[in-house]
Amino acid sequence: MLEPTNNNELPPIPGKRYFTIGEVSELCAVKPHVLRYWEQEFPQLKPVKRRGNRRYYQRQDVVMIREIRSLLYEQGYTIGGARLQLSENQDKETTKCDQNTIQQLRMEMEEVLEILTL
Question: What is the pLDDT along the chain (118 residues), one digit of tens a residue?
């Protein structure tokens, strides 16, 4: 998933592995309580929880939050509409990936068949 282009006013995402909820809040211009709420509403958003139920977000989580923010605040989607839009985007990516995998497997099978017929 690519970073949405309409989040240009947000700071760049540093090259860290994990981010705290406070850092993500600043990177995405969203308050921490909103992030916790979005975790309940969007099944795609699952930060790692460690000691004391502290949340640690990965880069793909930050990108997902920026996409959710864009859908809700900039494009005017409702939470249900944004959830649906995200799942449709995931389905399209999965379908494209599946087609590439099938094509690659088919080419490999043809190579094996060619070797066996020699």
Answer: 444 444 568 889 898 899 999 999 999 999 999 999 999 999 989 999 988 889 999 999 999 999 999 999 999 999 999 999 988 877 666 666 667 777 777 888 888 888 888 7
Q: Which domains does the chain have, with CATH numbers?
A: 5-116 (1.10.1660.10)
What does the block give as tokens for 46?
Answer: 């699952």
Query: How far, in Å, CA of 72 to CA of 100, rounded?
Result: 32
Q: DSSP label at 10?
A: S
Look at the chain and count its residues: 118
Closest CA to 72 of 45, 38, 39, 44: 38
